[in-house]
């Protein structure tokens, strides 16, 4: 698994990221949210499986928010392991994402 | 086709019998004119029915009958004596020697046919039984063989980490009696312990089979230090996809922190966890909150956990249904209260004592379900080999990466996997990955390929940047990166130096604008490393990372709060 996505309760779109979240996922990650249903109100990025992350992953996350800027969406990052949470924290991602 | 052996010293009798039998549909005959020849024919041709004359020169029918019978030891072989005798004594002797019936001379076709039909039926029944016995024996051997194989796999796949298990007093049923209970115990990377106490529905091999994948996944997850809730999610997902709907697993998944006092529990359907104080008072009872593993789909599954803290000298009791379901003819089921009463009766209660008491309570009746009991008296874990000890051997690793390696999309993965193999470095693997990825990509993208990050600021530039990177990389003809990893003592740091053959570049100014999708790499490096030096116009970068895995301990104590 590198990128998998699913819709829960018709309003939450969950993107599950694999073990490595790096630039090799640029295209897959973008494709995952390209045709988002109208009813989606929230996007969850599930990093439970993610052990490695680099700055391009951060770029991808911001890029997603940018390209969906015209929609009223809330963004959450869920299940991040301590090491990954630290990287998000260093990059002050808690300003843009609800980090659980 | 029924094969008939006709034994008579008078040829005329043999002919008459044969012709008569042919008329009623038999046509497979063998013949003998004395007892000895009859035995020989029977052992070579295996007849289904024998017609045997009583009085013959040489060996008589009565003497031959037992030996003819013996040629078919596994299957009933009917022997019908041909006789004109009518004195009772002789008839009795015929039956005693192994005869099953008589046909009397002169022969009557209708009687002869009816008798043969009857004996043909018993012969067929006997043949069927042999056939079924053969299948049964085959299946029995097959089952025994499968049991042996599974037992072997169980022995190898399911086991407690001995060092961690030494901190627990537990009772599990012998593995040879496959049961649905499972107790697993592993060290956590933080220096504590993970436990899995589970009970699959049903008994025997079918319910035990789910134990193997659970044990394997649990071991991998423990090694990686996953949170208890995440373990529950993954085990549930595994079991939902693997098991038939009627098999599921009630379980407690537990993490005990290195201090031996803080617990995280995901409880799915097992009896409540009991904690007692050193003076035999119940301190805590923690009810299970969830449905068993292997039932709910991912979206309905709840992985929230309970945290609790015990005091030094307290004892925690985990057990499966088998113990509390012990039945007494008068008092009924033992129940959770009953178990807790025994547990608090005296200080020295151990797992075996509870099992013995349950056996007495059942008054000798067998337990209806498998029993697993785990007791832990609070104490800090002090493992002989701390998980994060770095190798005492100093090292200095150099990599010279040429254009082939630079083009390899697996490059970083390979470097990381080499570094992982150094004892103790796995502890900082996530941070190391991030740092090395930033450094190497910085060299490739800005040093060798000459890309500018400002590209990413244009609309859709993020994707364009990586497409351009791909194009430039494909047509790259020359480029070198020299990477050195060195352990520096006594500071105990990992120094990473990187030099590339590019013309040098001005590193991105560190951006403070959170909306710009670039420039975060150096921020990350600065935070994850103790120091960062950029020399020779960006051609040469040196960073130092601490080898003290402070993060893991800090995160462990954070989780408890």
TrEMBL record, chain A:
Superkingdom as given in the UniProt entry: Bacteria
Classification lineage: Bacteria, Pseudomonadati, Pseudomonadota, Gammaproteobacteria, Alteromonadales
GO molecular function: anti-sigma factor antagonist activity
Protein name: Anti-anti-sigma factor
Species annotation: Alteromonas lipolytica
Cross-referenced PANTHER family: ANTI-SIGMA FACTOR ANTAGONIST TM_1081-RELATED-RELATED (PTHR33495), STAS DOMAIN-CONTAINING PROTEIN (PTHR33495:SF15)
InterPro entries assigned to the protein according to its UniProt record, in alphabetical order: STAS_dom, STAS_dom_sf
Boundaries of every STAS domain copy: 10-100
UniProtKB/TrEMBL annotation, chain B:
GO biological process, one term: phosphorelay signal transduction system
Annotated SMART domains: PP2C_SIG, REC
Entries under InterPro entries matching the protein: Bact_Sigma-Reg, CheY-like_superfamily, HATPase_C_sf, PPM-type-like_dom_sf, PPM-type_phosphatase-like_dom, Sig_transdc_resp-reg_receiver
Pfam families: Response_reg, SpoIIE
Domain Response regulatory: 3-120
Keywords from the UniProt entry: Hydrolase, Phosphoprotein
Residue stretches in coiled coil: none
Listed GO MF terms: phosphatase activity
Chain positions with 4-aspartylphosphate modification: 53
Record-given protein name: Response regulatory domain-containing protein
């Amino acid at each position: 698994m590198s990128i998998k996505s699913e819709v829960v309760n018709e309003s939450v779109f969950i993107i599950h990221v694999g073990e490595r979240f790096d630039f090799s996922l640029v295209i897959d990650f973008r494709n995952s949210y390209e045709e988002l249903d109208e009813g989606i109100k929230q996007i969850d990025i599930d990093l439970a499986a993610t052990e490695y992350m680099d700055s391009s992953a951060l770029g991808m996350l911001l890029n997603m928010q940018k390209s969906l800027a015209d929609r009223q969406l809330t963004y959450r990052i869920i299940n991040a392991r301590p090491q990954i949470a630290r990287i998000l924290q260093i990059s002050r991602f808690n300003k843009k994402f609800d980090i659980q | 086709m029924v094969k008939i052996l006709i034994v008579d010293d008078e040829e005329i009798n043999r002919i008459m019998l044969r012709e008569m039998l042919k008329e009623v549909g038999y046509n497979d005959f063998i013949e003998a004119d004395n007892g000895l020849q009859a035995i020989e024919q029977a052992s070579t041709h295996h007849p289904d029915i024998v017609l045997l004359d009583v009085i013959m020169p040489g060996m008589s029918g009565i003497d031959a009958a037992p030996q003819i019978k013996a040629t078919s030891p596994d299957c009933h072989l009917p022997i019908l004596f041909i006789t004109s005798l009518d004195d009772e004594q002789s008839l009795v002797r015929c039956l005693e020697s192994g005869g099953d019936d008589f046909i009397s001379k002169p022969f009557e076709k209708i009687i002869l046919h009816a008798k043969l039909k009857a004996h043909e039926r018993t012969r067929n029944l006997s043949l069927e039984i042999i056939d079924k016995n053969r299948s049964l024996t085959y299946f029995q051997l097959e089952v025994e063989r499968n049991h042996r194989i599974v037992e072997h796999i169980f022995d190898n796949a399911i086991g407690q980490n001995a060092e961690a298990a030494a901190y627990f007093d537990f009772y599990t049923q012998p593995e040879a009696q496959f049961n649905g209970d499972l107790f697993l115990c592993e060290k956590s990377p933080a220096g504590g312990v993970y436990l899995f106490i589970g009970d699959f529905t049903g008994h025997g091999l079918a319910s035990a089979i789910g134990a193997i994948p659970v044990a394997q996944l649990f071991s991998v997850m423990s090694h990686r230090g996953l949170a208890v809730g995440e373990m529950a999610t993954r085990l549930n997902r595994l079991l939902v996809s693997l098991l038939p709907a009627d098999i599921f697993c009630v379980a407690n998944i537990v993490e005990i922190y290195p201090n031996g006092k803080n617990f995280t529990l995901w409880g799915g359907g097992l009896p409540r966890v009991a904690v007692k104080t050193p003076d035999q008072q119940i301190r805590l009872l923690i009810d299970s909150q969830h449905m068993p593993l292997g039932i709910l789909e991912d979206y309905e599954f709840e992985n929230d956990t309970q945290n609790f803290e015990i005091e030094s000298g307290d004892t925690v009791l985990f057990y499966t249904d088998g113990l509390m379901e012990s039945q007494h003819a008068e008092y009924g089921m033992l129940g959770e209260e009953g178990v807790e009463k025994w547990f608090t009766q005296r200080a020295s209660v151990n797992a075996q004592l509870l099992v013995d008491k349950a056996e007495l309570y059942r008054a000798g009746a067998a337990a209806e379900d498998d029993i697993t009991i785990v007791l832990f008296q609070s104490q800090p874990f002090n493992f002989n080999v701390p998980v994060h000890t770095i190798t005492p051997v100093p090292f200095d690793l150099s990599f010279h990466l040429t254009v082939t390696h630079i083009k390899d999309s697996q490059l970083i993965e390979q470097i990381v996997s080499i570094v992982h193999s150094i004892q103790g470095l796995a502890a900082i693997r996530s941070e190391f990955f991030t740092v090395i990825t930033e450094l190497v990509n910085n060299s490739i993208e800005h040093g060798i390929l000459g890309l500018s990050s400002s590209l990413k600021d244009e609309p859709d530039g993020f994707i364009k940047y990586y497409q351009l990177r791909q194009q430039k990389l494909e047509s790259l003809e020359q480029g070198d990166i020299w990477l050195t990893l060195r352990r520096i003592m006594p500071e105990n740091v990992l120094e990473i130096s990187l030099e590339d053959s590019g013309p040098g570049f001005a590193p991105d100014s560190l951006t403070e604008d959170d909306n710009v999708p670039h420039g975060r790499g150096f921020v990350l490096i600065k935070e994850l490393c103790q120091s960062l030096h950029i020399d020779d116009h960006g051609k040469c970068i040196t960073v130092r990372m601490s080898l003290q895995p402070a993060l893991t301990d800090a995160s462990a104590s954070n989780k408890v709060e």
